[in-house]
Amino acid sequence: MAVLPEALIGESALPADNWLELEAAAGPGLEVFPNPFSGQATVRFFLPQAGTATVEVYNLQGQRIQPLAAGAYEAGSHELPWYGGAEGGKALESGVYLVRLITGEGILVKRVSFVR
Q1: Of 25, 30, 37, 54, which residue is 20 to 30 A from 99 by alpha carbon distance?
Q2: CATH of domain 27-114
């Protein structure tokens, strides 16, 4: 989630010292871009507080295609590259895939289209 500086959004904006509080209240976040992609996509996830996170890619049949990350992360925004491949370096077909973020607060899923 992007929080714009006060000067850009007018007088009703929160002062700068409240930005982190606003982000923390929002909960975990997940985005994948560009979408569609060929070559490389960026998986960006946000954690409102430090904790564990797992990011994996699945096909539409529910099969895990590629683990991207698993471990402990600090609070804040994190980015991971995905090169459109599967485990073991296998090439993927063009199609729709699901990127899944698992945290202690729940699971978020984003659809992404890969084009060869």
Answers
A1: 25
A2: 2.60.40.1930
**Pairwise CA distance, residues 29 & 18, whole Å:** 19
Please give the mean pLDDT across all residues of the chain: 82
Q: What pTM was estimated for this model as a whole? A: 0.75
91: which residues sit within 8 A by CB, 6+ positions away?
A: 85
Please state the separation of Cα 37 from the chain's center in Å: 15
CA count, 13 A, side-chain hemisphere, 60: 8
pLDDT over 90 for what percent of the chain?
A: 64
DSSP state letters, 55-110: EEEEETTS-EEEEEEEEEE-SEEEEEEE-SB-GGGPBPPSEEEEEEEEETTEEEEE
Residue 36's contacts (CB-CB under 8 Å, 6 or more residues apart) are: 112, 113, 114, 115
Distances (CA, A) of 28 to 1, 51, 58, 115: 10, 11, 20, 28
Structure tokens at 114: 């890969």
Reported as half-sphere exposure (CB side, CA atoms, 13 A), residue 97 has a value of 31
